[in-house]
Amino acid sequence: MGRLDGKVALVTGSARGQGEAEARLFSEEGASVVVADVRKDEGTKVAAEIAETGGNAEFVHLDTTDAEAWEKAVRNTVSSFGKLDILVNNAAIWKGEGGIEDIASETWDVLFNVNCKAAFLGMQAAIPEMRRVGGGSIINVGSTLARHGAATSAAYSGAKAALALVTRSAALQYASEKIRVNIIHPGSINTPMLREGTHGKHLDIANRIPIGRLGQPIDIAYGALYLAGDEASFVTGIELVIDGGTQA
Ligand SMILES: NC(=O)c1ccc[n+]([C@@H]2O[C@H](COP(=O)([O-])OP(=O)(O)OC[C@H]3O[C@@H](n4cnc5c(N)ncnc54)[C@H](O)[C@@H]3O)[C@@H](O)[C@H]2O)c1
């Protein structure tokens, strides 16, 4: 018995990093999985590898900032797998911003669009399908940077903090329909985002983490697995910090 047997999940940004780990783990636990990303080659490969090991998976090209593309992705999911139970709004970007006076107006808009508004668009597209089957689980992905200031990440932090409050508002709105909405705040996780964003200096960060190592994508995937499944049926509106003790 898998912990997600019979469920259907769509994971954004699952061509690599944490989203990839979530897609693979959800499949191992019995879910049919839609791998959604703008990276076609990597995403297709992840879905194909899941299918090779006996899972149900398909890739869909999805730019999460595009409302029409969301409608199509949800439609495809339902036509392939019959329904949608789990949505992980994981896709995001982290780019060097600089201080307030350095942030270009376009950079601000891109970071808020991809890192906050896109999850709202995803929820809008997915909730009617979850309502149709009597419930669902939405997992948004924030950051520990949503919970404290960061001198050179005001736009990224601000967008993720906004997403946390959007999450809690949605949780209240949809609790009576058994659609749960939670957010995970990862700390420093060893993914392409962290390696690229720190220009390969990611291992230096490990010294500042109480547990003494960087997080791995699977550390976040296990948290997402818990929130996705029925074991968490009484859990909504929470902010789950997974950061090796950094914010203790
Ligand atoms: N890695 C970390 O240390 C860290 C820390 C805190 C929070 N996070 C958050 O965790 C999540 C996953 O990050 P990661 O480290 O795995 O990143 P990653 O860059 O390794 O992977 C992100 C994936 O999202 C996809 N993506 C980006 N924009 C997209 C869009 N508009 N539409 C569709 N796909 C898009 C990318 O193509 C990529 O495959 C993000 O929400 C990130 O902000 C990461």
Describe this structure in words.
The chain has eight helices and seven strands; from the N terminus they run βαβαβαβαβαβαααβ. The chain is α/β, with parallel strands linked by helices. The chain has one domain (about 10-240): Rossmann fold (3-Layer(aba) Sandwich). It has a seven-stranded parallel beta sheet, sandwiched between helices. α4 (about 105-130) links the parallel β4 (about 85-90) and β5. The longest helix is centred in the middle third of the chain and has 28 residues, at about 105-130. The radius of gyration is 17 Å and the shape is globular.
The CATH architecture is 3-Layer(aba) Sandwich
The run of helices and strands is: EHEHEHEHEHEHHHE
Number of domains: 1
The CATH homologous superfamily: NAD(P)-binding Rossmann-like Domain
Distance between the termini: 35 Å
- How would you sum up the global shape? globular
Helix content: 40-55%
The hetero molecules present are: nicotinamide-adenine-dinucleotide
Mean pLDDT: 97
Main beta sheet: strand number and arrangement?
A: 7 strands, parallel
Strand content: 15-25%
